Amino acid sequence: MGRQKMPYVVGYNWVKRKELPWNKEKLLKNVESVEGLRWRIVDAKGVVLGRLASHLSVLLQGKDKPTYNPSKDDGDIVVVVNAKEIELTGRKFENKVYRWHTGYPGGLKERTVKEQWEIDPTVVLRRAVSGMLPKNNLRKLRTRKLQIFEGPEHDFVGEKYADVEFVPYDLPERNIKMKGRVEFLDHSKLPEGYQPLNREWYDKMCRLYKIANPYPAEVGDFKSKGEVGSKKD
């Protein structure tokens, strides 16, 4: 058995911290006020760890609001479910290592993501989000509003949370930058006789995507430096 926490003393009665009157009335533990804040629920199933953490850090800071102020803690409350179904790219599951020091000589400790996943998978996401938040006094307050759960269910149910409206947050489509490549490779939409205005850029893109240039330079066309070329005899 692990070491049990010492209960709090109120008067002559021994009371646990969660049973204290001022903690029973709060909707979220260790958060002073949730008035005016939205409850955002995020499904982490099949989402890459770093990509999800970057979006959660924006929600916790309140950067998605027009009233964003970096010196105030006005970010929304974020509830993440299915944290155990999150994904890591490459070999980070075996090679990524968490390190910390106990403060004593020779006290450098380390633990891989796989080992931490077996102990508590929610810590992996929490550390990723915490690392993306600004390193100031507000980081601790913002991480308190991040509630992570391993499965599809969360603890914010019952009469106490009857008036709470959970707003789902869907991450945008992945690989948005690749759309430009698809449009560049699709020449069916271009009109007949099309010639690129900036031929130097077009040749560079063709070399980048490793395709043949379908619009070769015409006779008397402009060179890369903007000089007029001479016609062939």
UniProtKB/TrEMBL annotation:
Belongs to the universal ribosomal protein uL13 family. SUPFAM superfamilies: Ribosomal protein L13 (SSF52161). Keywords: Ribonucleoprotein, Ribosomal protein. This is Mitochondrial ribosomal protein L13. GO terms for molecular function: mRNA binding; structural constituent of ribosome. InterPro entries: Ribosomal_uL13, Ribosomal_uL13_bac-type, Ribosomal_uL13_CS, Ribosomal_uL13_sf. It comes from the Eukaryota. It comes from Chloropicon roscoffensis. Signal peptide: none annotated. GO terms for biological process: negative regulation of translation; translation. One of its GO terms (cellular component) is mitochondrial large ribosomal subunit.
